[in-house]
């Protein structure tokens, strides 16, 4: 019996390792579009406003697709969900390669409604880990994210500059098809343990449709879920809005050249890899989720004060480590609490809803960030960070975050 348990643990860890590899490949392909889409938009005559509409359109599609993708994973398995995401990614780049007009460019964004490789990987990791090990395993996906940001954005830009749009698009299509094949061969059709699978089949859901708005509302109204979800949204929103405006702030406020602004983004990406890959797992083995949430909020308050006083790029470089720390910790910890707060049959849908926070910021962030920067300057982002997180700190002091499972060593 003990031998069977060891085999199961070994098999689960092997699947998780494959998932890390798939995620790194997926995000590398995904971030290649950062070099392709602006190049295409400029060549097709889109101005800054038109490009903003294009980005907003993609953000809205991802925002709508996150919960749908999560429910699809719960009903058809994570292998099917990852396969759908990778095939949608390959279709996205295939359409990009033939985008010879603005309508075709917008059409190439439509498959983005199903491109959710990172939430899909989070679902695999959540299903195959115990609550005590989950934070460390989820945090290591941050390493994959960093690899994707650094390699993907650089590779997309280099290939587009040297060979035009078609070559990087075909490289991304090939990468996504390779991910599809690996997922079909290496990821089990169902990653939930058998006992949990039986619970899922008994049906906590009232509707079998993946498009059911009622089911999404049901999950959000479960005890404690809406509280944690709002904490996640509010805590990451100020930082997310600032990061959206960072490229403009780097050039306009810090006086950096475009290349140096790119180095600043890479610096943030590397720090995120360190925090999520090496630090979060150690913290969660020693402290409760409630304590880590409070710590991240307090650190964010300090970041807000520092941003108000910031006057140059050196100051920003000092601010980035605590900013990345609080941003990463609250993202991972809230995901863990949310997956504990819903039935096991609905963890995929919950992670899909949680993943919609990023496109939510990407959709509304540019408008809000542009207004704040034009009207009040860079310090306004610091005041926003401070006000939001001081409010959250008082809220957390009064509210005990529910935890269905106690931490184990």
Automatic annotation (TrEMBL):
The record ties this protein, via Gene3D superfamilies, to: MFS general substrate transporter like domains (1.20.1250.20)
Q: Where is the Major facilitator superfamily (MFS) profile domain?
A: 12-403
Record keyword Transmembrane helix present = yes
List the Pfam families: MFS_1
Q: What is its main location?
A: membrane
CDD domains on file: MFS_SLC22A18 (cd17331)
Cellular component aspect of the GO annotation: apical plasma membrane; cytoplasm; nuclear envelope
InterPro entries named among the record's database cross-references: MFS, MFS_dom, MFS_trans_sf, Tet-R_TetA/multi-R_MdtG-like
One GO term (biological process): xenobiotic detoxification by transmembrane export across the plasma membrane
Q: Does the keyword Membrane apply?
A: yes
A GO molecular function held by the record: transmembrane transporter activity
State which residue ranges cross the membrane.
Answer: 12-36, 48-69, 81-100, 137-159, 165-187, 228-249, 261-280, 292-313, 319-338, 378-397
Domain of life, per UniProt, equals Eukaryota
Q: Where found?
A: Apical cell membrane
- Which UniProt keywords are present, listed alphabetically? Cell membrane, Membrane, Transmembrane, Transmembrane helix
Lipid bilayer topology: Multi-pass membrane protein
> Which PANTHER family does the entry mention?
SOLUTE CARRIER FAMILY 22 MEMBER 18
User: What does this gene product do?
Assistant: May act as a transporter of organic cations based on a proton efflux antiport mechanism. May play a role in the transport of chloroquine and quinidine-related compounds in kidney. Plays a role in the regulation of lipid metabolism.
- The protein's name in its UniProt record: Organic cation transporter-like protein 2
Q: What is the lineage of its organism?
A: Eukaryota, Metazoa, Chordata, Craniata, Vertebrata
